[in-house]
Prior knowledge:
Elements: H1 23-29, H2 35-43, H3 46-66, H4 71-97, H5 108-125, H6 135-159, H7 168-198, H8 214-226, H9 231-259, H10 277-285, H11 288-318, H12 325-350, H13 352-361, H14 364-372, H15 377-412, H16 420-449, H17 460-485, H18 492-513
Amino acid sequence: xxxxxxxxxxxxxxxxxxxxxxxxxxxxxxxxxxxxxxxxxxxxxxxxxxxxxxxxxxxxxxxxxxxxxxxxxxxxxxxxxxxxxxxxxxxxxxxxxxxxxxxxxxxxxxxxxxxxxxxxxxxxxxxxxxxxxxxxxxxxxxxxxxxxxxxxxxxxxxxxxxxxxxxxxxxxxxxxxxxxxxxxxxxxxxxxxxxxxxxxxxxxxxxxxxxxxxxxxxxxxxxxxxxxxxxxxxxxxxxxxxxxxxxxxxxxxxxxxxxxxxxxxxxxxxxxxxxxxxxxxxxxxxxxxxxxxxxxxxxxxxxxxxxxxxxxxxxxxxxxxxxxxxxxxxxxxxxxxxxxxxxxxxxxxxxxxxxxxxxxxxxxxxxxxxxxxxxxxxxxxxxxxxxxxxxxxxxxxxxxxxxxxxxxxxxxxxxxxxxxxxxxxxxxxxxxxxxxxxxxxxxxxxxxxxxxxxxxxxxxxxxxxxxxxxxxxxxxxxxxxxxxxxxxxxxxxxxxxxxxxxxxxxxxxxxxxx
Length: 514
């Protein structure tokens, strides 16, 4: 999916303070969360995924073909923006953790105050300034500003999971609603951006030096002349799409604010060993299962990020499906959404490691097929449906397996509790950093291959580069990631043992309290 970092990614200092509870207080804290509150909470996760899918699929082609930036400058924007996004996570988390509790809680003020500025900066990302000089600075500035403000929204929102209830079952239930809405958000973002922009595609520009067939030149010229859409129309379409998404962003934030009450949560345990962020990181690095899990998913995530970032260009130029690429992208997201429940059933029955191998490997033959055959719209749609199923597995499995690594850490370190967020935040940090590197390198490679903005036909070197970016490189990363997974030690038997030992630890802790 567009953003696979949708689960809890808040720093350790955001966790609720530890305090001993009386029996009456425990009862009060275990009251259920209403279905309405859970739905309002879930809707609050939609803006992150809607904007993420729009940026992930369309920002690169927007910068290259609409803003008409050189690929070198576009690579700087994409790389710097993603890396900046990764760096702001722990920074914002640190600031939020030191925010005072207000009448509306600690997290809600951040969510409410960041929303209008995030919406404005998001809209300006898709506005092409009327001057040639300074365009790169414009896009880089507003992209980084939006990523910062989006983090000011999403870090407190993720941490809000811990503050809607002290009951783990209630939190899990709310998270399930949230994941469902977030998946739908990726589809909505792709649909809005793709369908609005797809209806206003400006005609390409003929560069006959790239064509060996005069008949192709005449065909492309006739198509261009038949179209009355101009580049200005395409620019306005991108602005319209960003405006619609901005309105949805505000509505979702309003629903979250009005429908969710933040609780000043507490825990039913004694004061635990307090570790600094750096000390927690050192312990985390020594936990082998977590390191192997993160490294494995880092490479598989890189594979799908490369494909996501370059697939629109590949469809437009290499396969020549300029008028259909937005529909193909939408099919991928819809297929992924529909197959998530199937993967959930699969991993429940056959185990999570088996699901990793089957789910991730499922995409490999289709990645190879799409570059080995001649352009065919029907086959491309078949590949999109099949690839969507694998994208769903890549979206679901990390957030299904990370809790197992956290539980394993708790069992091995019973006196070092309360550091769950470190596991999530560093996984998100590394995946975001890797995303920035992959997008930057892939766009830079197009620069060296001789990419020409809005050309009807690209040089053979560009088409070869796009094939490598959506097939050969992702397949290599998938194989490398799965090789790392072979040494991942947490199987179903170990998961069961850890669950039993954790229940025993929780029971002992409860007896000490009461």
